[in-house]
Amino acid sequence: MAFKETKSNNFSSRLLNKIYSSLNYYEKCQYKGADAYFHSEIVHPMAEGKYLLSLNELNHCGLLSKNIFLTKVIKSIQRLEKIRLKTKGQNYLWGLSFKWNDFSAEEPFLITNCVIVDGLLTIAEKNDIPEVNAYLDKCIFSMDKYMRNNSDIYGLPLYSPNISETIFNPAIYAYSLMYRAHKIKLIKVLPNKFKSSVGLIKSNFIKGVGWPYGPTNNVIDLLHQSYIINAFIKLDSPEKEIEKYMYSCLHTFKNTILNDKAIIDSQIETLDFLTKKSPYIIKEAKNAKVIVYPNKARLWSMGEMVLCLSNLTRNSKNYKKWGPVMKKIVTEILDDNDLKKDISMTYPRQYLHLVHGLTSCISTLRMI
């Protein structure tokens, strides 16, 4: 059943039309699409995770009936089952579903599994659906096992079994999911060194800037910042702490447009584009300096940033502080005519990140 678009031009209608047109496109394409790294059309597991999260938001705020929601969710689980990594036996894990660099299509990636588990867990937290509960149990068990068996020198879970570099965003995302699973008694014990690992990631935050990719990588991007902030929200971190993270993220990436990538100061002197005519933006904070690339944020970065603002607005005691910021950024996205020509709008992994952020926004606005 197609999502019905409207002809009204107010903010809520424009927002809903953007959501519905994207979901209708996804379903019309039979849940398949190409990718920036793979040009054949396939079902992408990460996209399915974001699809589940989007459906949940629409159902939660009354924009999707329970029966249609249930049908779409069960069919999504069936698609996920078809593309999980069968070579991993009874482990319910997913990779990219295509070969990337030197990694086979059978390489599991932690961030992909985080998005899928997030989709299933978020539905289970608000609904009692036997098919979801049964599948989530298997996925949580597999993720817990993966995290215990694949860790780096700091004890943090690896991005993938064959990528040993410490990367903060999938690690904290995974910990936030295990924390939530523990709260509803899906697991009895939190992962090894849970408290110290969360503390380690928190300690690498640079006020006014954000988090680098990891302790040895000074690249910083909007998508990864947003994953991390959303994870700390789900870890029930204090509101003042989350606001500090959000202010820093906006300070770095919200310029005349929403930018996507930056490098923290220790690498600046090695860059050859620091000239007076450079389009790059220098941002200074108390403890660091960053150089921001002029590139506009990618769709998944936009979506995850909106999700941050929506979660903060929804959980905040002061809607007047964050609601207008969320609406301003969403309005800029809706007004961006270049998005209609952006090839990424045909890449399910990317545009469904955006859809999830927008569905969270409309859900928040209808609840407060």
Describe the structure.
The protein starts with 10 loop residues before the first helix and ends with a helix. A hairpin with a 4-residue loop joins strand 5 and strand 6. The mean pLDDT is 92. With 368 residues, it is of the alpha+beta class. The chain has twelve helices and six strands. The longest helix is centred in the middle third of the chain and has 20 residues, at 130-149.
Brief description of this entry?
With 368 residues, this protein is an alpha+beta fold.
**What order do the helices and strands follow?**
HEEHHHHHHEHHEEEHHH
Beta-strand portion reads: 5-15%
Distance between the termini: 29 Å
How many DSSP E strands?
Answer: 6
Question: How would you sum up the major sheet?
Answer: 4 strands, antiparallel
Strand order of the largest sheet: 3-4-6-5
How does the helix and strand content classify structurally?
A: alpha+beta
Instruction: Quickly count the helices.
Output: 12
Q: Which descriptor suits the 3D outline?
A: globular
**Rg on CA atoms, Å:** 20 Å
